[in-house]
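Researcher: Please predict.
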Amino acid sequence: MIRSLLLIAALFLISPAVIMAAEAEPAWLTFSGAEGPGKGKVVVLVSGDEEYRSEEALAQLGKILATRHGFECRVLYAIDPDTGAIDPNNQTNIPGLEQLGVADLMVIATRFRNLPDEQMQEIDAYLRRGGPVVGLRTATHAFNIPVDRAFAHYSNGYAGEKREWTDGFGRIVLGEKWISHHGKHGQESTRGLIAPGAADHPILRGIADGAIWGPTDVYGVRLPLPGDSQPLVLGQVLAGMTPDSPPVAGPQNDPLMPIAWTKTYSVEGGPRGRVFTTTMGAATDMLSEGTRRLLVNGCYWAVGLEEAIQADARVDAVGGFQPTPFGFGGSRKGLKPAGLR
């Protein structure tokens, strides 16, 4: 009886600590780097989109970069502050952005986020020091901030007084803002063809012509891309949703739209930073080995490790990777960051 009473008393004493630990559960994931060329480099991967499952895509990319290549990866999410669960529809909260202060690379795959000033300040500070950026898919339209806010100039299609920010983060940093679905969304997939003159670029090392594929459609861009942009991969619109689908006939493939390119950027005269952008990058796109290699190689190049890119380096998925199909309203409900570990 005494032992039973002591056990009950102990449980009452422990319960508050257990509750506090649950509340303190990290809102992001950290994958420590194994051995590899990326050892000592910190990559902060910023997810937050309603459609393409960036929370799953960047968790898997972080695992590959950490386990196969040695990078320390910290994956951030759109979080419901009341539940601690990942909520891609919450456009106003991505905890952990202060970690960009020690980052060697930011990988971003957000869509129309309206983040509070204190969170945007972390992104702005990173870009002002010329930090390298890898942008995926909807990062071309990463932000949508009201005109009366401090960071409104980051918004997709910005047309305000800060002329140097015309068209916002997408155009100025990544090279393009949201333009259009060039292929038929959900009906026409994408095959990546190496752009003329780009075959020897280190990002394409180990990638054969046509090896990049994804069920997401080609995005439209304005040609030519701005500044020192260099197209690496062109997107062939396919008349179907499998890698062996034939290309569609007609103007959709004439000319072909770039789907991956490099460039540099500078914020208001600050240091120049490297950028690799691809309009692919949905979680389902990463079922393709060619697409995974493109993303991994792009990260190497962005941080200045292009000499270390190996054509036969491992880019296979870590753990069981079964991504959720893209589409609005289809994200996994109640999922917390730890569930993607």
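Model: The helical segments are 2-23, 54-69, 117-128, 168-174, 289-302.
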